[in-house]
């Protein structure tokens, strides 16, 4: 009997080994120890720069976390979001989800510059994004996880991919879920990763329709608490003020916790893409309730889902390059 139980235990450990230690990708593996010999101070350097940036501006944590999301949903986690327009490259920064919204590029520049001095042409921009996202989460009180590493950088960008693949604030629940599923992510990942909206801000233009014309009939969204809606309308008028910022979580906007989910339960999710998790699908509704009730459950699943998202189509082995400057392909001279 004991021999049988030992065998089952070994099988269980082997089943979880890929999650804990490595992720198979086309052309090679991602694993946390990837830079242990080639650049042992890499993670320490990244953490230090991110910590300084977040100390200077708390909002930067959410911005860096978002960069990793927006990178992975377009062509995989390959650092393509960081490329500026140059030559044949049309930057993803020009896309609707990123224009006047994606930020934190200067922090990535600072990290890359420090890493190039420490260990030239070794640490990819894609891996910097993955580590910075984890560090930003931890610095604001969220969970930690070992980041599988070994991604390489793309030499191209996809403006159309950025416009089409990244979920939009006004998308329906089914559209959002479909966009996640196309990346190999499921409904559990969708709800857990949406919890990143526990920190950060959103612009008036991203949720204005909920305040004035949700269904095209000139009426506000019925699933938005009306006192909260009135509060939002004071700084988000029918026209103008597009760039005015609002906390995604108005209870603890700078702390990574489960108040995002608690807000959804009382119809105070800021974005339509937030509140539909509670109102449009029974399975996602139950997940929202579970995470609102149990912060540890949310943290554990968020870490698992972040590792899973970070494994979307990475370039490994001989694919891709290590860009010396995250903004441009190697050999391209800055104009």
From TrEMBL:
Cite the Plant heme peroxidase family profile domain residue spans from the record: 29-330
**Looking at its record, which EC class is this enzyme?**
oxidoreductase
**Leader sequence segment:** 1-22
In this chain, Ca(2+) 2 is annotated as bound at 198, 249, 257
What are the alphabetically sorted keywords of the record? Answer: Calcium, Disulfide bond, Glycoprotein, Heme, Hydrogen peroxide, Iron, Metal-binding, Oxidoreductase, Peroxidase, Secreted, Signal
What's the stated role of this polypeptide?
Answer: Removal of H(2)O(2), oxidation of toxic reductants, biosynthesis and degradation of lignin, suberization, auxin catabolism, response to environmental stresses such as wounding, pathogen attack and oxidative stress.
Describe the family membership recorded for this protein in Swiss-Prot or TrEMBL: Belongs to the peroxidase family. Classical plant (class III) peroxidase subfamily.
| Protein name as annotated | Peroxidase
**Which organism does this sequence originate in?**
Protea cynaroides
């Amino acid at each position: 009997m004991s021999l049988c139980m030992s065998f089952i235990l070994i099988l269980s450990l082997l089943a979880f080994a890929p999650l804990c230690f490595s992720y198979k990708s086309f052309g090679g593996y991602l694993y946390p120890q990837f830079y242990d010999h080639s650049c042992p101070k890499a993670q320490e350097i990244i953490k230090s720069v991110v910590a300084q940036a977040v100390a200077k501006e708390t909002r930067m944590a959410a911005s860096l976390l978002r960069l990793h999301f927006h990178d992975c949903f377009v062509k995989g986690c390959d650092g393509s979001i960081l490329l500026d327009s140059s030559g044949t490259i049309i930057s993803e920064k020009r896309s609707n989800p990123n224009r006047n919204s994606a930020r934190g590029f200067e922090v990535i520049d600072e990290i890359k510059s420090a890493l190039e001095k420490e260990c030239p042409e070794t640490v990819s921009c894609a891996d910097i994004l993955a580590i910075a996202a984890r560090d930003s989460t931890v610095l604001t009180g969220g969970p930690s996880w070992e980041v599988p590493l070994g991604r390489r950088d793309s030499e191209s960008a996809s403006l159309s991919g950025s416009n089409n693949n990244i979920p939009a604030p006004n998308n329906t629940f089914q559209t959002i879920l479909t966009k996640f599923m196309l990346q190999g992510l499921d409904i559990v990942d969708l709800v857990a990763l949406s919890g990143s909206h526990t920190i950060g801000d959103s612009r008036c233009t991203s949720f204005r329709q909920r305040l004035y014309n949700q269904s095209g009939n000139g009426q506000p969204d019925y699933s938005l608490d009306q006192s909260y809606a009135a509060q939002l309308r004071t700084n988000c008028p029918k026209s103008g003020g597009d760039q005015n910022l609002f906390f995604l979580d108005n209870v603890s906007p700078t702390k990574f916790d489960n108040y995002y989910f608690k807000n959804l339960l009382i119809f105070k999710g800021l974005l339509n893409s937030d509140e539909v998790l509670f109102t449009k699908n029974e399975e996602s509704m139950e997940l929202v309730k579970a995470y609102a009730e149990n912060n540890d459950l949310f943290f554990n699943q968020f870490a698992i889902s972040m590792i899973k998202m970070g494994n979307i189509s990475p370039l490994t082995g001989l694919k891709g390059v290590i860009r010396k400057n995250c903004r441009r392909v190697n050999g391209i001279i800055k104009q």
